[in-house]
Specification:
Order of helices and strands: EHEEEEEEHEEEE
Number of helices: 2
Radius of gyration: 17 Å
Structural class: mainly beta
Number of strands: 11
Distance between the termini: 37 Å
Shape: globular
Strand content: over 45%
């Protein structure tokens, strides 16, 4: 059994639907249910979920690893079952530090691991000044990167949900 504590920030960003369609394997459809929650001017956009995290005190029996950062890029509303209504999420890869035990553990779960460096190295984000924050993950081979810069502002209810 593996135990630990996760501290994650979850951010939704919007990308062009055509880009999402390139990433999601062709055998799976992207359910269009999310469109009813997007502003009408953004109908060609698709929501991608970024999970930026730090894993603390991860242990498996008597083995432990140092705290580490990770990033998951997740594409929601994927029709894995092919029934046209049940939606799942697709996570094509996870960004992890080049620590062999961590890479092997994620690989055992079937995740494609992109070995990466992080800025900040072991925090979910860093403050740039005022209300601006950033986070970056760069693959060791410089082939992939995730860079998020955000500013906290007054909240607006862009996506009202009826509950």
């Amino acid at each position: 059994m593996v135990t630990g504590t996760l501290n994650e920030s979850v951010v939704t960003v919007f990308i062009d639907y055509a880009v999402a369609r390139e990433v999601v394997p062709k055998q799976w459809n992207i359910l269009q249910v999310y469109k009813k929650y997007l502003p009408s001017s953004s109908s060609n956009l698709y929501p991608v979920v970024l999970e930026l995290g730090v894993d603390h005190d991860v242990r498996a029996g008597n083995t432990s690893v140092p705290d580490f950062s990770n990033v998951r890029v997740t594409l929601p509303f994927i029709d894995l079952s092919g029934d046209g209504k049940s939606n799942y999420r697709y996570t094509p890869a996870i960004f992890l530090p080049p620590i062999p035990l961590i890479v092997a553990g994620a690989g055992a779960y079937g995740e494609e691991v992109i070995q990466s460096t992080f800025d900040p190295p072991c925090d979910a984000y860093k403050q740039l000044g005022g209300s601006q924050y950033s986070f970056a993950a760069t693959s060791i081979d410089n082939k992939y990167n995730v860079l998020l810069t955000a500013a906290v502002s007054q909240a607006k209810n862009y996506f009202p949900l009826d509950v």
